[in-house]
Amino acid sequence: MASKNFQFKNFLIQQDDSTFKITHDTCIFGSYIANHALLKNAETILEVGCGTGVLSIMFAQNTKAKIVAIDIHEPATILCAKNIDYNNLNHQITAIHKDVSLFDFDTKFDLIISNPPFFKESLLSNKEVNKIAKHDTTLSIQNFICATEKLLINNGILTFIYPSNLDEVVTNYICLHKLFIKQKVHIKQFQHTKPYLTIWIITKQIINNNIVPIAEDLVIYETQGVFTKLLFNQLEPYYLEQALKHK
């Protein structure tokens, strides 16, 4: 299998053809949550669809919480465990080959995070790994919300990233399961462009009697290839200097 390592400032992620390569969007999502207060308040975290384990390992830089990383695709779980071991995080992160809809619902988490599959309208790939990871043939967004909601403590938080053009669909499923939107972050390439991804932060309970979600934009580029100051500061603790300069 072809292999290409992804070197971050304080850790390294090994990649191969068994799972997704690390993307810029994943790192933006991970760094946003890693710097968020909700991560610092969590004692137990579940990552659904861990892939290489990059999100769990990124979070481990900022929290002492115990993290469980699960994936329905066994080779991805094996690679995740390899990366956990390589970065000396076996004491904090556990990788498990598991379908979230079959997880032990007696186990509850403070925080559940996921970068789920969302290529519903794309043609199915030839490789089985892409069928599972790139297309929601095994876990729709509705089933994902249903399964993860059962694994949250009463005041727990669910956060995930999904295409912005499906915001209305996601909102309907959140309401269907009687959950509350705490915050929505729209990711945009430039200030003048439409958002293409949304970070959702969802709770099981209304917080401080506030039922109006916080909405904000996260703009990636000031000009072509130049990060906005906000995103630069968000990524700076994780990216190497050359990665911050050349995008």
Lateral arrangement of strands in the main beta sheet? 5-4-3-6-7-9-8-10
Mean pLDDT equals 86
Portion of residues in beta strands equals: 25-35%
Relative helix content: 25-40%
Total beta strand runs: 12
Order of helices and strands: EEHHEHEHEEHHEHEEEEEHH
Oligomer: single chain
Radius of gyration: 17 Å
* Low-confidence parts: 119-126, 131-137
What does this structure look like?
With 247 residues, the protein is an alpha/beta fold. The protein contains 9 helices and 12 strands. The protein has helices spanning 24-34, 37-40, 54-59, 74-86, 128-133, 141-149, 167-176, 229-235, 241-245; strands at 6-7, 12-13, 44-48, 66-71, 93-97, 109-114, 152-163, 180-188, 197-203, 214-219, 221-223, 226-227. The strands form 3 sheets. Strands 5-4-3-6-7-9-8-10 form an 8-stranded mixed beta sheet, with helices on both faces. A two-stranded antiparallel sheet has the order 1-2. Strand 3, helix 3 (54-59) and strand 4 form a beta-alpha-beta unit. It is globular, with a radius of gyration of 17 Å. Residues 119-126 and 131-137 have low confidence and may be disordered.
Strand and helix map with partners:
Blueprint: E1 6-7, E2 12-13, H1 24-34, H2 37-40, E3 44-48, H3 54-59, E4 66-71, H4 74-86, E5 93-97, E6 109-114, H5 128-133, H6 141-149, E7 152-163, H7 167-176, E8 180-188, E9 197-203, E10 214-219, E11 221-223, E12 226-227, H8 229-235, H9 241-245
Parallel strand pairs: 3-4, 3-6, 4-5, 6-7, 8-10
Antiparallel strand pairs: 1-2, 7-9, 8-9, 11-12
